[in-house]
Amino acid sequence: MATRIDDDYQNLKKNVHTHVVERLDEEGIEVERIDAQQLHRFIQSTVDQYVSVNRIPLAMADHTMLVREMVDEVVGFGPLEPLLADDQVNDILINGARSVFVEIAGVLQKVQVRFIDDDHVLRIIRRILAPLGRRLDESSPMVDARLPDGSRVNAIIPPIALDGPSMSIRKFSSKHLTANQLVNMGSMTRECLDLLAGIVESRRNLLVSGGTGTGKTTILNLLSEFIPKDERIVTIEDSAELQLNHPHIVRLETRPANTEGTGRVTARDLIVNALRMRPDRVIVGEVRSGEIIELLQAMNTGHEGSMSTIHSNSAKDALIRIETLLAVNGYDAGERAIARLIGSSLDVVVQLTRLPNGRRLVSEVVALRPTKDDPYRMETLYRSSELDWLAPEDTGVAP
């Protein structure tokens, strides 16, 4: 991932890129149609010529790197390419041209990779958006998108982003961890795995709760392996990340509004439609808005064994967050009625935690056992022994 970061090199890179683009235009070369090896040879020849004519002193390693980076600029996503190709990198965070962070094994770290300037960041963002028909300008300064490999992208630009254009990439991986791998890594015990398998097979409605980057999607993928193969599943996501190992799946994805402000399809719309598709189970990638109303009602009306995830730091907080989502999205009922709906719809909450060293684990599994006096009465089915020596604020689990 090493990349030259000094200003002289970045200025050279900017000038060479301009020259390469001009030469492509002069020769009438269409990047999308030319053979990759032929294009690489053309770029190498153009860079060689530029360096020679301008008598630029470059070590062989720097010269080779410059050619590679020009190829990335022309056909790829520039400085992002080595990070996207690195399987160890889970997230890429660009905080302006000179500040790039990655997450590896749950730990954020700054890398030497940088962009030339803010215009360079904008150029890469717009290259990502171009095939998708998405707009990004002062009147629409925020956008969600997806790379060709499925990685999820969020970009935001000035004047909303005060320190220059910012981009966050959650990389998509088709290589999901197996149950045995999660056990061997210490993310859960064999006892916990057997418990979760039994919960899914017995068609309990389940919510996976955890903070950002705790592995909620990974656990949802794992749980799907225990759904009987003769059941029909409908999944609903804002950005398709689930890779369920199941023979009978219908995958639905939300759609943002177009440039005219129309055509939006929400998760709530999709759940309403999904219930007309004869699903045995509905799986919602994440509840964050009004779709929670329809999901809870689906769980209550014959779609047992449905699942979703929610951002929350403890099982109790997850229920409180659901309460809030119901209230702010117009569910007109009293406090006790809302609590009864939640208590009767959800059966199990699986809480995930990321430890200070970046390792993710299932911290606890709790069952809801509502009573007349306490609709949120919980019974702990599993609790990780690793939490016993950590302070509560480090675990996200109530003591």
TrEMBL record:
GO molecular function: ATP hydrolysis activity
Entries under InterPro entries matching the protein: AAA+_ATPase, P-loop_NTPase, T2SS/T4SS_dom, T4SS_GSP_E_ATPase
Domain of life: Bacteria
Residue ranges of every copy of the AAA+ ATPase domain listed in the record: 202-352
Record keywords: Hydrolase
A Pfam short name: T2SSE
Family statement drawn from the similarity comment of this UniProt entry: Belongs to the GSP E family.
Protein name in UniProt: Type II/IV secretion system ATP hydrolase TadA/VirB11/CpaF, TadA subfamily
Source organism: Marinobacter excellens LAMA 842
Organism taxonomic ancestry: Bacteria, Pseudomonadati, Pseudomonadota, Gammaproteobacteria, Pseudomonadales
